[in-house]
Amino acid sequence: MRNDLAKWTKGAFLTLMFGGSALITAASLEYFDLDVLPPFVIEKLPVRFESLWLASLRLHVAAAALSFPLCLALMTRTLQRLPTWHRWLGRVAGALVLVALVPSGVVLAFDAKGGAPVTAGFLLSAAIVAACMVRGIVSARRRELTVHRHAMRHVVAQMSVAVTSRALIVALDAAGYDPELSYLVALWGPVLGSALVAEALTPSSSLSPSRLASSFQKVRHEAHRLDLLLRNRPVPRPFARLGR
């Protein structure tokens, strides 16, 4: 029963995220029209380092449109059962995230709507994504699959904030909340909530009682073997001490 619920929940999450990612990508295509500035960009201008900001916006949108669906696909059983495809697509996703998505997101964060608290939220999310992506890559190369899954859950969880945050903004706006407060809540809520959910889905740590008991039994076994070895070791014959 629990396994069925977990499969259904994961399937629903992936479906919603794929759909949300597609909608965001479709709504963001106007950013690539070099002749017309979309309303969002006009609202943000003027910004410091305008050329850098515009380039970062387009790079961020393009990287997110590719990397988020790719990371979602890598969570499916289909790709997890194809190790070669999983490995190479994972490398592509890792490169997109670390080289394009996170750096461009950091640039955009400093001109985010809502001021310093919102900037801090975006930077925290970017730091989690970058750190966990690096950890996920390193652990995959070491064949530490449990650590790899843990890290990648956090990466996907933070990337899902793009979808959940927009949905929450729409809900809070419909409820008549203050736009500035809604934007702040809609960012920090998903960032912290996603991190907590990703951590809650992690299997018990290496310090769990069962693993501690198992480790204690192994230590006792090895200590007993050492004791027997020392007891049965032949006693060396006395030898003459050399004088000066």
The termini sit apart by 82 Å
The low-pLDDT segments are 205-209, 235-244
Tally of domains: 2
Strand elements, count: 0
Largest sheet: none
Describe the overall structure.
By secondary structure, the protein is mainly alpha-helical. It folds into two domains: 2-202, no CATH class; 207-233. It is 78% helix and 0% strand. It has ten helices and no strands. It has helices spanning 2-28, 39-44, 50-74, 77-80, 83-109, 116-141, 145-159, 161-174, 179-200, 209-232. The longest helix is centred in the first third of the chain and has 27 residues, at 2-28. It is globular.
Topology:
Blueprint (H helix, E strand, L loop, with lengths): L1 H27 L10 H6 L5 H25 L2 H4 L2 H27 L6 H26 L3 H15 L1 H14 L4 H22 L8 H24 L12
Helix pairs in contact: 1-3, 3-5, 3-7, 5-6, 6-7, 6-9, 7-9, 8-9
From the structure above, extract its key features.
single chain; about 240 residues; about 80% helix; mainly alpha; 10 helices
Quick recap of the structure?
With 244 residues, the chain is an all-alpha fold. It has helices at residues 2-28, 39-44, 50-74, 77-80, 83-109, 116-141, 145-159, 161-174, 179-200, 209-232. Helices cover 78% and strands 0% of the residues.
